[in-house]
Structure formats: C-alpha cells, structure tokens
UniProtKB/TrEMBL annotation:
<dbReference type="InterPro" id="IPR012424">
    <property type="entry name" value="Conjugative_transposon_TraJ_C"/>
</dbReference>
<feature type="transmembrane region" description="Helical">
    <location>
        <begin position="172"/>
        <end position="193"/>
    </location>
</feature>
<keyword id="KW-1133">Transmembrane helix</keyword>
<feature type="transmembrane region" description="Helical">
    <location>
        <begin position="232"/>
        <end position="252"/>
    </location>
</feature>
<feature type="transmembrane region" description="Helical">
    <location>
        <begin position="199"/>
        <end position="220"/>
    </location>
</feature>
<feature type="transmembrane region" description="Helical">
    <location>
        <begin position="67"/>
        <end position="86"/>
    </location>
</feature>
<feature type="transmembrane region" description="Helical">
    <location>
        <begin position="37"/>
        <end position="55"/>
    </location>
</feature>
<keyword id="KW-0472">Membrane</keyword>
<feature type="domain" description="Conjugative transposon TraJ C-terminal">
    <location>
        <begin position="34"/>
        <end position="322"/>
    </location>
</feature>
<dbReference type="Pfam" id="PF07863">
    <property type="entry name" value="CtnDOT_TraJ"/>
</dbReference>
<keyword id="KW-0812">Transmembrane</keyword>
<feature type="transmembrane region" description="Helical">
    <location>
        <begin position="288"/>
        <end position="309"/>
    </location>
</feature>
<protein>
    <submittedName>
        <fullName>Plasmid transfer protein</fullName>
    </submittedName>
</protein>
Length: 341
C-alpha cells in the first residue's frame, strides 16, 4: 500500500512498471497486423518504382535495395520478438542500477523513519511541555533560563511557558511543512518519470510497426532508425532515474544522520531543547533540500538520455552506415561480375 511516509514506495514502483505489460502487449498483435498491411502496400509501390527504373535503364540492376522491404516486413511480422530482443540488454543494464537503488532505498527509509519518529516525539514534547517548563527545581531553571534572558518570576512563569511553546511551534511547523512539501515533490517527480517512461514505451511499441512500414518508402527510409534510437533513449529513463535517486539518497543519509543526532540531543537534554527553540539551525532543512534537488534533477532525464543515445545524430549515423553497406555491396557485385567477364 502506498505510503507518504516512505521515501520511495517500491511496491507502487513495481505497479507502475507493470503498466506496459498489462496494457501494451494486449493490443500489440493488432497494430503489428495493420503494420504488415501497410508494409505490403508500400512494398508494392517501392518495387514498382525501383523495377520500372531498372527496366527502362535509368538504374543499374541492384539486388540489395529490393530485399530491404522484405527484411522490414520480417521485422514487423515478428514484432513482439523484435521488441524483446531490444529489451534484453536494456533491462539487464537497468537491473544493475536498480539493485543498488533498492538497497539504498531500504537504508534511507530506515533512517527517515527514525527521523519521523523523533520528530513526532519533539512535537509531543512541545505540546505537552508548555505547562511542565516550571516543574523542575528553581535552581536548575535558574541556570538554564538566565543564559537565555528569560524571566523566571512566579507571576510570569505560565506566560513564559506558553511563550516557549508558541516559539517552538512557529519554528517547528513551517520546517515540517517544508519537509513534507519537498518529500511530495520528490515522490511526484520520481513516480512521474517512471510513469511517463512506461506510457512512452507503450506508444512506441504500438506505433513502431507503422514507423517500420513507412520506412520502406524512399522519402522515409530513416524512420525505423529514428524509432529505434527513441525507443532506446526512453528505455534509459529508469536507469538514469535510479542513478539520480541513489546519488540524492547519499545526501539524504548524511543529513538524516545529522538530524537524528540533533533531535536526540534536544529530546534528552532540556538545555539543548531550550537553546534549540531560540536559535536558528538547519534541522529538517537539509534533508528537504536534498529531496528538492533530487526531484528537480528528474526533469533533466530526457536531456541526459539524449547524451547517451542522440535521437537525431544516431539516426543520421545509422542511416549513413546502412547506405554505406549498400554501396559496398554494389562495389563487391561489380567486382565479381567484372572478374567473371
């Protein structure tokens, strides 16, 4: 069950990753079948144009370009297996980062729960301790409060206790709200990236057969290469998100340990508690800042994925490689025919 008190709910994360398996593959066969229909129509048009040019003598006799539509058709006919083939290395790489990410989540979650427990105790201390400020002996109170310039007259003791409680709440509640807001932003950004990735992969998987089919036409010959580069780029979202989350949790661990030490001192020592009320510090602030930075970094994932697999440069590079391979095939054929002659 999803819980706001968890850094990352791994159960909810697993549910998001199942969206693709639940929705995507149910309609995959239908779209692949329509992609085959389009590929058949485009193949006939392609063959007609190419064959006519060879018949009238405008083009040399070439075999490799004529086999290209059939190779694309085979990919569309085995679309599910083709997607699985691409997913195997990508999921393997993502699993490496996910294992370390899950271990870090468990470690951070343990420390975060301790911080929340101590925070609740501090809140109860401020609420219940207003009337208990003056229950200690007069000498102990005199030593603590004189350092802070707080009057201990009997007539003002009740007012001073209420004042201390109000000051504590005014300091405690805004920080608690800020921590909760940053936590919400962190979860929203992380879950949002994972959800968007699954939606994009479903869309690319369902519409991929059409991209391959239209690539049979000469004017769109690189569309299938662009599809592959985008599919790989989107598949890397989870890998990058796990890395960003893991790095941000290193900062959370450091700040959480500092907060745990501070909260324990505040709860165990009355003098530290009173001093904390009247001083400015970064309690609850630094962990919230780490969450906020980690959440904002999630928005850079689409740009970072293009550093690894460029959705434009890769298509041009692979397209040039394919055309270069075809040119080498033509040269080899000419060399063989020339040798035979």
């Amino acid at each position: 069950m999803w819980s706001f008190n968890e850094i990352i709910d791994l159960g909810f994360l697993d549910f998001i990753k199942e969206i693709r398996d639940i929705f995507g593959y149910t309609e995959l066969a239908d779209h692949a079948r329509y992609g085959q229909y389009l590929a058949g129509v485009f193949t006939m048009l392609f063959m007609a144009v190419k064959s006519y040019g060879m018949i009238v003598g405008d083009r040399q006799w070439e075999i490799m370009p004529l086999l290209r539509p059939f190779a694309i058709g085979l990919v569309i006919m085995n679309w599910g297996a083709f997607l699985a083939l691409i997913d195997v290395p990508l999921r393997g790489v993502s699993r490496i980062s996910e294992d370390g990410f899950r271990k870090k989540v468990e470690q951070t979650q343990t420390e975060y729960q301790l911080v929340m427990q101590l925070t609740n105790e501090l809140g109860m201390k401020m609420i219940n301790g207003a009337m208990e400020v003056n229950q200690n002996s007069e000498q102990q109170e005199q030593g603590v409060f004189e350092k802070l310039g707080v009057s201990l007259s009997k007539m003002a003791s009740l007012i001073e206790g209420a004042r201390i409680m109000v000051m504590g709440l005014l300091k405690f509640i805004p920080k608690l709200w800020m921590s909760g807001l940053c936590h919400w932003i962190y979860q929203f950004c992380f879950y949002g990236v994972m959800f968007i990735q699954q939606i994009f992969l479903v869309i690319l998987g369902l519409l991929g057969p059409y991209a391959f089919a239209i690539s049979i036409l000469p004017g769109f010959s690189d569309s299938y290469i662009q599809w592959i580069s985008r599919y790989i780029s989107v598949s890397l979202y989870s890998l990058i998100a796990n890395i960003i989350a893991t790095v941000s949790m290193f900062g959370m661990n450091y700040t959480n340990r500092a907060d745990i030490e501070t909260l324990q001192q505040i709860l165990d020592d009355e003098e530290h508690y009173i001093s904390w009320l009247f001083q400015s510090d970064f309690t609850f602030t630094m962990p919230a800042l780490m969450m906020l930075l980690g959440g904002l970094m999630m928005f850079t994932i689409p740009a970072i994925s293009t550093w690894i697999v460029s959705t434009s440069g890769l298509g041009n590079a692979l397209g040039n490689s394919v055309r270069g391979g075809q040119a080498l095939g033509m040269l080899a054929r000419k060399a063989v025919t020339g040798g035979v002659a």
